[in-house]
Amino acid sequence: MVQVTVWNEFRHEREDEAVKEQYPDGIHEVLAECLAERGFETRTATLDEPEHGLTEAVLEDTDVLLWWGHAAHDEVEDAIVERVHERVLDGMGLLVLHSAHYSKIFKRLMGTSCSLKWREEGERERLWVVEPSHPIAAGVEEFIELSEAEMYGERFDVPEPETLVFNSWFEGGNVFRSGCCYRRGSGKIFYFRPGHETYPIYRRPEIQQVIANAVRWAAPTEGPEPTYGEREPIEHLD
Amino acid sequence: MVQVTVWNEFRHEREDEAVKEQYPDGIHEVLAECLAERGFETRTATLDEPEHGLTEAVLEDTDVLLWWGHAAHDEVEDAIVERVHERVLDGMGLLVLHSAHYSKIFKRLMGTSCSLKWREEGERERLWVVEPSHPIAAGVEEFIELSEAEMYGERFDVPEPETLVFNSWFEGGNVFRSGCCYRRGSGKIFYFRPGHETYPIYRRPEIQQVIANAVRWAAPTEGPEPTYGEREPIEHLD
Amino acid sequence: MVQVTVWNEFRHEREDEAVKEQYPDGIHEVLAECLAERGFETRTATLDEPEHGLTEAVLEDTDVLLWWGHAAHDEVEDAIVERVHERVLDGMGLLVLHSAHYSKIFKRLMGTSCSLKWREEGERERLWVVEPSHPIAAGVEEFIELSEAEMYGERFDVPEPETLVFNSWFEGGNVFRSGCCYRRGSGKIFYFRPGHETYPIYRRPEIQQVIANAVRWAAPTEGPEPTYGEREPIEHLD
Amino acid sequence: MVQVTVWNEFRHEREDEAVKEQYPDGIHEVLAECLAERGFETRTATLDEPEHGLTEAVLEDTDVLLWWGHAAHDEVEDAIVERVHERVLDGMGLLVLHSAHYSKIFKRLMGTSCSLKWREEGERERLWVVEPSHPIAAGVEEFIELSEAEMYGERFDVPEPETLVFNSWFEGGNVFRSGCCYRRGSGKIFYFRPGHETYPIYRRPEIQQVIANAVRWAAPTEGPEPTYGEREPIEHLD
């Protein structure tokens, strides 16, 4: 059974009335619940817990980590970022949601600025599936339409994704690579754009479906554990 | 339950004593059996059956097709190749084994010559896993060693694989990209190098494991069925 | 000096008054001229010439071939398609323009249907550069805007491009991967979406700039000519 | 004219007699000289200079930076690593040579451990060209043979390269992806394996040819400078 930890900054929902209305118990609870309903074993962790809720023990028991952050990326301690980074390289899956494009852990894994254009006007977004055979697109229509979304636009400063699953159209004239697959070490990473805190996007069944698909895709497989360092020759040398 | 059809040219095993000894009932039977043991629903089809055993009905019921051919690629009828091609674009997975690199269907899907260097001296091969987190590498050690193999060497004239899972070392001084993932239309394709007819390679548990992994990976997912052609605007045009 | 052959179906311009007005001497002449101005040695070839103007001698002298076709893809003889295909694998660059996504040669090289959604309403298109460091994007702004364009929309049934340079936004609500790089054999291929016959798109300096960049990128380099077939061991075998 | 800075740790050559014999003035001088002979404007920089020789002014004037380090990666100051990192994202090319796979800057750009297997026995290496049409392979034969090389073996913990140009065979039974292209931000990166300090590998004309090719490939192009941050809508919102 895949074990999922949903990490959330969990500040907006406590400090901002509009957000509290959307997500009274926090974005993490909505995400954890929808994943539990789909058969995953879930727990949550938030910024203001000790070690941000991401102790060695928690990470050890996590197959896939979801990460949502926005206003307090800088408050995430570097030591915890390194711990998460090591676990990803070691095989833990990572889902990077919406404004977490700017999280320390995503920038650490990508090696780039992860910058983009943005605008908060509640415009229409249409996420087109460009790779319909990818498991992350299972159960989805040809596009997902969001009537009100924050805009994220290209250039998105990330390495070219190993697979681009979703490609977004925005009413205001922009496009965005909004569903991007990566592999780093033995860990699989999926960046998924939707999910602003003031729109009830994580309650949408299609969005929940994509997230559940991505968790399944990112879960570790039982591949060989790579070993490194000095090695004797396997074959006889002249 | 994933439905697998194992297609085999099935000539060597009837005409050549050495091959008959290795695979008395044909390569297809060994492959079908090892997949059945791993929980797949399997059937076989061979060149000399009517329509090469690949009727519309058979293909309709096939989630993943395995293809082994060597000496009679040219005898595969173009109409059947087109039929298989359409099914792949429509979502059927395809495993292309060993000398099937030169099959009509693989060349049709790759758009290249699929040529390579080769040598039949029974030399050692070591297939190194270069992407340990890929599901096709599950349950495999850091490398698979074959004590006697036909050599296939670079330049392998195929498009750069979407993921390279195995990279082969040969005793005689060559290397080869020996486990290559592709996506064409809604179909997933895996080229896997091992498997010459005079070596009992398909009886090796690690090889069977990789093939079973690849079947699981290549099985169709329930993504959107893409539609094409003229379309009304979704948004109002100025 | 890079030698370019511009191939054009050249039917619309002779049969349709609106197209004749845009391109009185044919699309090929406008393209050849703009490339000549940028220092390329150019010639043209059209469908109704003997061998479609693509004799062995012409192809032998061609470093990069541009291909524009629309209504008469089926009239291109298979033998000529095979000849062009071989030259591409052998190193000749190929630029596939607009409706040539459906040409025999592009489908032959891609191995897929190359289908897409389309609409001819003269809507706005914005081609966003997603890979600004690619040489094909040199001298271009963050996006190219076309005030009137035919729409091409996803799902575009092609293999995932090796590099995606342009990503298009359309007024009517669609997106499209509109600048796609591929490598097949020793040949480089660039698919570039803009260029409908009834809009004067090929007279736009930015579009001409992209095409010239792509010609430079696709021109053959002096890499090793790969050899294939049976080979002696390079190393001593046990 | 492309401006190249060759950075070298430059410790082995001063401290170890065997290395001093190979490279009396340092690896950087041999590399700078061979590039100057091929028409590049070159300078050098070394670890023990102030700011490791990589001042803002030097980097500003550098189109492509070569990096060779081995025993003192940790002595490179983080602030300088960040400076180089920013310049790469901003468009400067970077060639990462041999043991620099473990440099701070390469790990920073890759986001992975960059670990590998290794062995120093002076064994044979054969670098096979797997992508002959890539400009980095220009002027090279089907393989480059090194009679005595340090072994680097898979699993090499890097993201899958955007293009794999060279694939190495080692006498002792290992393989290695030895010529790997990446793009990060607007910068192009090439990792090239050969070059141990006790073998005169950088004096080999084929190796010099590859390095010169890679400098040309990695040099910045005049693409759009991406802009980021909040943006007004381009299109009218409902």
> Given the structure, what is the number of helices of chain A?
7
Helix content of chain A: 10-25%
Structural category of chain A is alpha/beta
Strand order of the largest sheet of chain A: 2-1-3-4-9-8-7-5-6
CATH topological fold name of the domain at 3-112 and 178-218 in chain A = Rossmann fold
Which CATH class of the domain at 3-112 and 178-218 in chain A is shown?
A: Alpha Beta
| CATH architecture field of the domain at 3-112 and 178-218 in chain A | 3-Layer(aba) Sandwich
Average pLDDT of chain A works out at 97
Pattern of helices and strands of chain A: EHHHEHEHEHEEEEEHE
Question: Please, could you describe this protein's structure?
Answer:
The structure is a homotetramer of 238-residue chains. The first copy, chain A, has helices at 12-15, 17-22, 27-37, 56-60, 78-89, 104-110, 205-218, and strands at residues 3-8, 41-46, 64-68, 93-97, 117-129, 143-153, 163-170, 175-184, 187-192, 229-230. Chain A is an alpha/beta fold. The longest helix of chain A has 14 residues, at 205-218. In chain A, strands 2-1-3-4-9-8-7-5-6 form a 9-stranded mixed beta sheet. Chain A has a domain at 3-112 and 178-218: Rossmann fold. Chains A and B meet through β5 of A and β5 of B. β5 of chain B pairs parallel with β10 (229-230) of chain C, so a sheet runs across the interface. Chains A, B, C, D: It holds the Pfam family ThuA. Chains A, B, C, D: This is ThuA-like domain-containing protein. Chains A, B, C, D: Residues 3-218 form the ThuA-like domain. Chains A, B, C, D: It comes from Halalkalicoccus jeotgali (strain DSM 18796 / CECT 7217 / JCM 14584 / KCTC 4019 / B3).
